[in-house]
Amino acid sequence: MLTPALLTRVVAAALDEDAPWGDLTSVTLLPADATANADLIAREPGVFSGGAVFSIAFTLTDPTVTVDVHVGDGDAFTAGDVLASVSGAARSVLTAERVALNFTQRMSGISTLTAAYVRAVEGTAARIADTRKTTPGLRAFERHAVVSGGGRNHRHSLSDAVMAKDNHLAVLQRSGLDLAVALREALSALPHTTHVVVEVDRLDQIAAVLDGGAHTVLLDNFSLDDLRAGVALIGGRAQTEASGGVDLETVGAIAATGVDVISVGALTHSARALDLGLDVRID
Length: 283
Fold this sequence. Notes:
The chain is of the alpha/beta class and about 280 residues long. The protein folds into two domains: about 5-120 and about 270-280, Quinolinate phosphoribosyl transferase, N-terminal domain (Aldehyde Oxidoreductase, domain 3); about 125-270, TIM Barrel. It is built from eleven helices and twelve strands. A six-stranded parallel β-sheet has the order 6-11-10-9-8-7. A four-stranded antiparallel β-sheet has the order 3-5-1-12, with helices on one face. Strand 9 (about 215-220), helix 9 and strand 10 (about 240-245) form a beta-alpha-beta unit. Helix 1 crosses helix 4 (about 90-120) and helix 3 runs antiparallel to helix 4 (about 90-120). It catalyses: nicotinate beta-D-ribonucleotide + CO2 + diphosphate = quinolinate + 5-phospho-alpha-D-ribose 1-diphosphate + 2 H(+).
């Protein structure tokens, strides 16, 4: 969640990184009393995310700068649209410009890509979810952008849910432990509100996972036929999630197999920054 404290901490660190001793160009070239009115312009269509981040980059630099965001997170826009306006001391506006754009371009790229995945599964019951494949330190920002695009958030961190993946299962097997028994013991020790997900990569693993009481069975890198077979085998006894091999060309067919959730790492690790620019008005 993008709390005010988190926004302030992360954006302040970005501003300090970008201008540790101030903006040498603006301070030496621009008059101290010069002002600037600038617009955030979309160079291409997309779905917006990061309005609060864009604003705070300027106000942390200079509280007297005024920022008006004209669209909400999750709103679609077209090329040429004015998404926000900034007014204030020219030195301050230009000092904050790149940090404000870096966040907003990145977040809007994620929300735009997520929206494309959500459109691709329309007409099915499948939900598009993100993963923990995020930029270190920016997870809350990127996950906010996923929601802006109509997607859902998976667990936020290792502390939020039990998610046994292939390496966890390999350790259990090497230790001579039965998966179903290990799951039941884990569930008995966990709070009743804790969700348990187990990843499988073969159909013959599903029975033990169900026997152990997992809430979600993650079908990893399954073929379409095996996804359909897995959904039928689970038969509503647990939530079904598909992952692996998911892109915009395959996600529709994956959704049609009947899975409940499709987790897509590409939403955050492969989204292209959207082309947005801050243009100072000369008039």
